[in-house]
Predict the structure.
Amino acid sequence: MLIASFTFAQPLWLLLLLLLPVLMYRYRQEAHKRHVALQVSRLQAMKGVKTWVVYARNWIQGLRWIAIVLIIIALARPQQLWHEDKIEADAIDIMMVMDVSASMLSKDFLPDRLSVAKEMATGFVGRRPYDRLGLVIFSGGAFTQCPLTNDRRVLQAFINNIQVGRLPDGTAIGIGLATAVEHLNNSQSKSRIVLLVTDGENNTGDLGPLTAAAIAKALGIRVYTIGIGSDGIVQSPVRQNRDGSYQFAPRQMTFDTQLLENMATMTQGKFYRAKTSQDLQGIYSEIESLEKTKVVNTTFRRTADMFFWFLNAAFCLLVLEMLLRWGPLRVITV
């Protein structure tokens, strides 16, 4: 990134600008000594005598003062300064795996589990400026919503557009994890992790969660599992209407904590349980602290002198003032 700014190599010369008001005051005080006074009997005799020359002579001295200001600025050596930042990052490849089964619409989070999970995931993406991130959604099957990318806005848009009901119903945790692992297997990054968010037990899929975790371990991929949902009876979907909406009723929700913990431990990751939105926010913050991206920032400094522009402008103004003063604005005394 290239950043340009304006500076002075010898700024002490700018103190001379403080003398200009004094010089201008002295000049005006002594101005009457340099002009001849013409006495007339009545003011009416001078009506209509003023021309553009009279008015021009009132401001011609301003050209000299401006030229002096430009010369003082040139003495301070104005420079254009460029800071070029070169950032080298040892980036991390992160696949986010999110459960989109119907139970993610349960109302123990406001407005529901999925909305809170999407909000936290979007914020997490925004705080990882150097990493590549991707998104896999799963329920009864799995789908790659967004492959690994550096485009934060695109990924955040995909996360915000996640909806329940686009995949077969069920919770195939193993299939979801395996889909993410397949993407990370082609990555050349030194650090590869999976963030898996789910609220239920594995109840479908041809590949078991522990088998998928074993594959991740063999490939050196760490898996962080996040169980979202409170204990007890919650308002949860029980039936889907023809228009795609859901009917809700109180349900006792089950949660396979041991499975998620075993998956994380097997891959040297960590298991978290989020019972509130504050818990989920804290979990993402902790993962950020554990998975820090190594960034090396090198700054190059370059300068270019600009004083000659000010000297050229001052010279032109002085020449203009001399031509006007000794040309059309010349005063003849007799």
